[in-house]
Amino acid sequence: MNASALYYSMKLKVHNFTIYNVNNERQCHNYWWNECEGELDASVFVSILLSHLETYCINIDQEEKKNIILFSDGCGYQNRNSILSNALLNFSVQHNVVIEQKFLIKGHTQMPCDSVHSSIERKLKNKDIHLPSDYVRITKEARTTPCPYQATLLYHTFFNDYKINQTYKSIRPGKGKGDPEVRDIRALKYDPVTQMIYYKLNFKDTFYLPLTLPRNKYFELIEHYPKLYAKQIPLTLSKWTDLQKLKHVLPVDTDAFYDSLPHADTLKQRKHQGI
User: Fold this and answer.
1) CA-CA distance, 82 to 162, in Å (whole number)?
2) Which residues form the DUF7869 domain (predicted)?
């Protein structure tokens, strides 16, 4: 096949979400999934985060649980939104643990996750990636001391829908023009005793202020969330066709994976707008 034609062929997107535990011997877990298994949806990131917290940060034998502190950037759909905040409040009450969420200032801070991504990128250099599972293997090889990075390949059945039954419809501190917006929040606190969310607009503030609850709204514990996806997400027919062409330069034992990817049966038609 023509090399330039292959270069411009559409590729399968693979996403990564990294969680680094600074209090647990530099334990780091990388979660990978391809675009047929999950989108870049708030519920996708919430599913990963809550599963990780339950597995690595909750000690059921501890009488007095330690606070959980989360540091992240201010990415809206991933780290700073009402879907995540309602889910963290529910998790806080469910496990009787205080959770603090702190948003680092863009351009002024660096997180351990940044160095993790750099290590993985260096290991990926000049490597052949034939399948999403190759990212898992290379992630584990990217660090040897004090221990290898952990890596998990996720599937659509893993993700839950956290948009249901939200106590807080918004986490914006203000309502009117000129009032603080979501992007102004520097920290959030989830209290299992009051069953409320609190916020700070400045790291130097001594106290957290309560977010306003909607009228006649109160917290209700959710024990189980429904699944986010009933099945895999289909590719467009054009992308699936491009992936079939790429099989000619891939090892033959990868064919089954690319043949099994769900896809639309017809080409997507561009909508024509009336004049």
Assistant:
1) 10
2) 26-144
